[in-house]
Amino acid sequence: MNATAQKTAAWYTRMLMPLERNIKLTIISRLSASLVENEAAKTDRNFFNGLTGAWDDGVSPEDEAASIRSARTQGATRVLEDF
């Protein structure tokens, strides 16, 4: 922990010292819960970040787009009735 973080922690400790025991326990509980939530959110973000991005298959974006366009079909998979 760097000096600024230590000073900040000391300031909060001095501010919280006069509080009643139950209030301190409530604050501790809420801080603990926020740490758990932050870790869970970080894990979720890391999971989804791993699913996004580009893959290396040697196909240029233009060739990929052309391949998608040429694979499109119209009317071959479903028939819509006229009104």
Describe the protein.
With 83 residues, the chain is an all-alpha fold. 67% of the residues lie in helices and 0% in strands.
Q: Helix and strand succession?
A: HHH
How many strands? Answer: 0
Contiguous helical run count: 3
Helix content: 55-70%
The secondary structure category is: mainly alpha
The overall pLDDT average reads 80
Low-confidence stretches: none
Overall outline = elongated
Q: The biggest beta sheet, please? A: none
Residue fraction in strands: under 5%
Instruction: Supply Rg.
Output: 28 Å
Q: End-to-end distance, in Å?
A: 72 Å
Chain-wise SSE layout:
Elements: H1 3-16, H2 21-51, H3 61-71
Brief digest:
The chain has three helices and no strands. With 83 residues, the chain is mostly helical.
Which characteristics define this entry?
3 helices; 83 residues; mainly alpha; elongated
